[in-house]
Amino acid sequence: MLFRTRICVLLLVWSCSAVALAQGSLKLSYLGTAGWEISDGQTVLLVDPYLTRLKSNTPNDPALAADLRPLVTDSDFVSSDQAVIDAHIKRADYILITHTHADHVLDMPYIARKTGALVIGTESTANFARDSGVPASQILTVKGGDDLQLRGCSVRVIPSLHGILPAGVHLPPPSTIFPADVKPPFQLGKLFVEGGTLAYLIRMAGHQIIVFGSMNYIEREVDGLRPDVALIGAMPERHKIYHYTERLLHALGYPPLVMPTHWDRFNVPYGVSQQPAIDRLQSFIAEVKGVSPHTRVIVPKYFDPVMVESSSTPGR
Questions:
Q1: Is the pLDDT of residue 18 over 60?
Q2: 28: nearest Cα among 11, 42, 48, 53
Q3: What CATH number does residue 101 fall under?
Q4: Peptide bond before 260: cis, by omega within 30 degrees of 0?
Q5: pLDDT for 270-307, tens place per residue?
Q6: pTM for this one?
């Protein structure tokens, strides 16, 4: 008889100083934007950790007038909010970067230097890390197609595509990479070099988690994968892709658990209400449930871990 992993999901607040998780358990914490912390209690893996949340006009959300921080424009020099990062990121073993736009990569160098984590990403990611003072020994350049055995987990690197941004947003071509041998500080406008986009299939504690950093994918690259958990980009740009949600869930075998990523208003501080983003997210939730009624959809809250525990049951 064929078996498929069923996941039991518990939502609870988990202290960073808590004891190791039970065998086969996994903790996923949403950092905002496309950022995640994934851990089995021993290995800590970060994906696109961006916590600085600059006040800027983003493609889907204008800057909030009630936010008293200064507005940051493309010509302004930017740096990480180290106090916010220190409040939430205590350790990391690996940092996976999907692409080198500022809202994915800005905080990576500080976190890597702080934790000693190995940074994994494209040549563009490697250049940005090296330019920002991350030692070469902490940088691993990948292209897609790589399948990495790491300590405590393994990671399949998946070639992917960035979402199609709204009209009027003009960025360098995807093939443009962040230059080598430039030094910070960097202007915000210089940090929107995509440098190619990757997705990742993470295997940890008996689970498989696929994570995307934007609102697009290459169907043939994910077809046949069977993750327990899918972290799927859910901003409105997905509507520019033909049957985005339907095709992706079919290719992935209708994962038991889906959590949206890159759905929030990431240009406001963490304490500001996300209700407008939650409201616009309802169409994505309806798409998932319409295609895969048995899939559970959880809208994550910042830093409130989703605990995933496994048990084997007959599958379809």
A1: no
A2: 11
A3: 3.60.15.10
A4: no
A5: 999 999 999 999 999 999 999 999 999 999 999 999 99
A6: 0.92
Residue 185 in tokens? 């500080």
Tokens of 237: 């740009």
d(CA 265, CA 274): 7
Question: Between 244-251 and 275-291, two packed helices, what is the crossing angle to 10 degrees?
Answer: 60
- Is residue 296 included in any domain, yes or no? yes
CB-CB neighbours of 295 under 10 Å: 16
Tokens of 309: 């525990």
Q: How many domains does the chain have?
A: 1
Q: Which two tokens stand for residue 109?
A: 């160098």
Identify whether 134 is part of a domain. yes
| Segments forming the whole domain that contains residue 37 | 25-300
Does any domain span residue 47? Answer: yes
Would residue 311 count as lying in a domain?
no
User: In 88-233, which ranges are E strands?
Assistant: 94-96, 118-121, 139-141, 147-150, 153-160, 186-187, 197-204, 207-211, 229-233
AA identity, residue 316: R
3-state class (DSSP) for residue 235: coil
